[in-house]
Amino acid sequence: MRENHSSGGDFEDVYGYSRAVRVGDHVHVAGTCARALDGTDTYTQAKEALSIIEAALKEAGSGPAAVVRTVTYVTDIGDRLEVARAHSEMFGDVRPVATLVEVSALIDPRMKVEIEAYAIET
User: Fold this and answer.
1) Which residue from 41, 65, 91, 96 puts its CA 20 to 30 A from 57's CA?
2) What is the pLDDT along the chain (122 residues), one digit of tens a residue?
3) How many other β-carbons are positioned within 10 Å of the β-carbon of residue 2?
4) 56 with 20: CB under 8 angstroms?
5) Which contacts (CB < 8 Å, 24+ apart) does range 1-4 have?
6) pTM of the complete model beyond 0.85
7) Quick one: pLDDT at residue 4?
8) Is 30 helix (H, G, I), strand (E, B) or coil?
9) Measuring CA to CA, how many Å separate 6 from each of 9, 30, 39, 110?
10) Which segments of 1-122 does DSSP mark as H helices, in order?
């Protein structure tokens, strides 16, 4: 059975997507950015994105401990250590497989990082 979960973000209706989708034991969380952007550094944005991801996982009946993969997009690869610090704070004991790539831009020029996550409940 498929369960769609919204976080209430404005763009979810505009784009036609869910923050998280659960199918059986699998939970997929969409690419997630911070909502507070003005004057925030990459670490702060990563922490907020991960907090939104954690809330989406919880709503879908999961949590960070079940995450098996993350994909992170940054607009400046020089920010990798800031993102790694935030990622490690949430997933340091879980140690999911992880991909980090630099992209030319995200949907808002103030956005510095976007993170998606995949969890499997066992």
Assistant:
1) 41
2) 898 898 777 777 778 888 999 999 999 999 999 998 888 899 999 999 999 999 999 999 999 999 999 999 999 999 999 999 999 999 999 999 999 999 999 999 999 999 999 999 98
3) 8
4) yes
5) 3/60
6) yes
7) 87
8) strand
9) 7, 10, 27, 23
10) 10-15, 42-59, 80-91
DSSP 70: E
Tokens of residue 58, six digits = 């919880």
Q: Report whether 20 contacts 29 (CB < 8 A).
A: yes
Which amino acid would we find at residue 115? Answer: I
Take residue 42 and report the two structure tokens written for it.
Answer: 């990459």
Residue of 121, 122, 120, 119 whose CA lies nearest to 30 = 119
SS3 114: strand
Output the CA–CA distances (angstroms, integers) from residue 62 to 22, 65, 94, in the order listed. Answer: 9, 8, 14
**Tokens of residue 88, six digits:** 């490690």
